[in-house]
Amino acid sequence: MTNHHSETERASLYNSAQSVESQIEALRTGSVPVSVYGLGKMGLPLAAMYAKTTGNVLGADIDSAVVEELNEGHCHVKGEPELPELVAELVSNGALSATTDPLEAAEYGTVHVVIVPTPITAEHEPDLSILDAVTDDIGSGLETGDIVIIECTVPPRTTAERVRPALESASGLSIGEFGLAVCPERTSSGRALRDIRGAYPKVVGGIDAESARVTELVYGELTDADVLRVSDATTAEAVKVFEGLYRDVNIALANELATMAEELGIDVLEAIEVANTQPYCDIHRPGPGVGGHCIPFYPYFVIAPFETPTPLLETARAVNDSMPGFVVEKLGAEFEAEGMALSDASILLLGLTYRPGVEEIRASPSLAIAEQLSAQNALVYGVDPMLESVAEFDLQRLSLPEIEERAFDAVVVVTPHEEFESIQWDELERSSGQLFVLDGRDALDAPAITDAGHRLYTIGVGGDRGV
Ligand SMILES: NC(=O)c1ccc[n+]([C@@H]2O[C@H](COP(=O)([O-])OP(=O)(O)OC[C@H]3O[C@@H](n4cnc5c(N)ncnc54)[C@H](O)[C@@H]3O)[C@@H](O)[C@H]2O)c1
Ligand SMILES: CC(=O)N[C@@H]1[C@@H](OP(=O)(O)OP(=O)(O)OC[C@H]2O[C@@H](n3ccc(=O)[nH]c3=O)[C@H](O)[C@@H]2O)O[C@H](CO)[C@@H](O)[C@@H]1O
User: What domains are defined for the chain?
Assistant: First the structure.
């Protein structure tokens, strides 16, 4: 990859002797080369925003298809408004390019932004191996005056106790010669550019004051929102993780309440909606499970690495992970009432990604639902307009038009993609008796289902919906 900015001066910001105005001028005129590591759902929008602001970004990704597509001006991330056009513009004007060689990026940038995956292992331990690899790569090219900014979500204390020593060891430099800060990505897929531009404040925490100063200056140019500087890097890491913990616990509360709906004999969704009119109440929405590689994973960034007991976090995880089973039990009970076994049933799952419009299947509820149904020898089909392959799922793939050519005993709405709004429910039929429709997300128009002669159960709705 040729360096498209080799002719311009190469400025660094950490411990810069220039005035703040000159530093900002350098940042905005392409004199501060930025390297972004990880060009995925979050990294590509972030690299684009950096390139739009600085005009000088080299992205690094180990996936050659990602790099090739980007260097052709194409956007591989689906469902991000404005991103394809922005990427095309930035690549054509030389503000953004990419390499598969993180070492090249490490030599190129004086600002290094890390936004690579931070998953968990099958044993629910944080897996920071990718972060470690990138840290070592950056360390090998780190120079005095550089700054490294961790945007990926990591367990608290990771930057101070894992990333810092690794950078110092790989570079032979120390904090004070280079900077290190945390600015966690707080964006949601599907609205990434809007969020990064400034839907809500960016949070900055530095290993030292100069790192915090430089990172505050950089994000002050990147976002229109406030930049909130917190005490240190660990606090910034904790802010991000706490947001996710709050969400997982609150979804678990909604799910537990939803499982009580029939015994309560009410529409729990209605009760939640009205309870939330109280400003101190923000009960989330029940569903067939909690997916994605954020919310179901972040609790383990606190449960696993620390000694302090975390019973609430673990219970919330257990409640949310029980929801696919709740769906399967509901299906079994419905068929049992007809004297039919799940092993004789044909079941269609609508929506396999973890939420609508996002091409991500990690921890998707449909994975567990299909697995548990298949384990009981049910015949399981799945439809998802966002997915080319459904190899990870225990089911047979159907296209949306194909579902009206077959008969099912039940249809489960797991993830309500907008394409499903075109389904003609009166065209769906069961080989004999009433089709059973399980609406996991309160996404359906109930009269359209019941007018078509189907039986409808919505998670959280215990009795008949009020008049
Ligand atoms: N997806 C979200 O909604 C979201 C929101 C906020 C924060 N985050 C956090 O952002 C980080 C990245 O998440 P994402 O959703 O963009 O992941 P992603 O899986 O969409 O993309 C990750 C990218 O990193 C690349 N990569 C993997 N190993 C690499 C390496 N060694 N060097 C360079 N690139 C490498 C992959 O090829 C991929 O393109 C994670 O820490 C995540 O927790 C995600
Ligand atoms: C704290 C927070 O908001 N973080 C957001 C979150 O974004 P996300 O893409 O992971 O999506 P979510 O909307 O959190 O959904 C996750 C799963 O929970 C299900 N769900 C959701 C709400 C509900 O009331 N009931 C549910 O059942 C849903 O169906 C899906 O399966 O994490 C990103 C990375 O940290 C953040 O950047 C982003 O801000």
Answer: 7-231 (3.40.50.720), 312-463 (3.40.50.720)
